[in-house]
Design brief:
The complex is a heterodimer of chains A (109) and B (117). Chain A has 109 residues and is mostly beta strands. The chains are: A mainly beta (109), B mainly beta (117).
């Protein structure tokens, strides 16, 4: 099974900051990676797929990069609505296997 | 606009079978795509349970495979999850979701299922 490891597990930042979250796969997954945002009590929301493609309607301050085993999610200028938990997900072995990272909680400093 | 809605008992006794249904509106399941179940224990991360193709082909998380059954009812435009022999570790919010390509684009709001006697 492919394991996904996110870092950090939690992060404190201020509005206007630039933040980066990292996701590492236990084996190469090409660009088969998605990022989701989840707010308390809500379902996850797709932000990015194919490692770097922004889902329709997602603000351009979100960006993704990487391929193989190492990936990043960057938020260029934090807004108040961005404080949430972020998950990466690999779908390299779709549809037989999906794996999520453990999540990164982004909190207000 | 496609919408998904989970339904089912919010409380299940240990050793019994958890049964949930996901009703889909705004899109006909028989038209295609993969449909999945994902769960999230309180305060923890997301775990993929399994997926079903509109034709009925199923794929399960190996860690749950022996206890999971996912089925589709195209006449009712819904798909279902059954998880047998539940324990307290199966207490979670259960989400249904649609994967039109390889990732989940649309999710239900989630339903909390508690396993307790």
């Amino acid at each position: 099974a492919i394991r996904m490891t996110q870092s950090p597990s939690s992060l404190s930042a201020s509005t206007g900051d630039r933040v980066t979250i990292t996701c590492r796969a236990s084996q190469g997954i090409s660009s088969y990676l998605a990022w989701y945002q989840q707010k308390p009590g809500k379902a996850p929301k797709l932000l990015i797929y194919a490692a770097s493609t922004l889902q329709s309607g997602v603000p351009s301050r979100f960006s993704g990069s990487g391929s193989g085993t190492d990936f990043t999610l960057t938020i260029s200028c934090l807004q108040s609505e961005d404080f949430a938990t972020y998950y990466c997900q690999q779908y390299y072995s779709y549809p037989r296997e999906y794996t999520f990272g453990q999540g990164t909680k982004l909190e207000i400093k | 606009q496609v919408q998904l809605q989970e339904s089912g008992p919010g409380l299940v006794k240990p050793s019994e079978t958890l049964s949930l249904t996901c009703a889909v509106s705004g899109y006909s399941i028989s038209s295609g795509y993969y449909w999945g179940w994902i769960r999230q224990p309180p305060g923890k991360g997301l775990e993929w349970i399994g997926s079903i193709y509109h034709s009925g082909s199923t794929y399960y998380n190996p860690s749950l495979k022996s206890r999971v059954t996912i089925s589709v009812d195209t006449s009712k435009n819904q798909f279902s999850l059954k998880l047998s022999s539940v324990t307290a570790a199966d207490t979670a919010v259960y989400y249904c979701a649609r994967a039109p390509t390889r990732y989940f684009t649309h999710w239900g709001q989630g339903t909390l299922v508690t396993v307790s006697s």
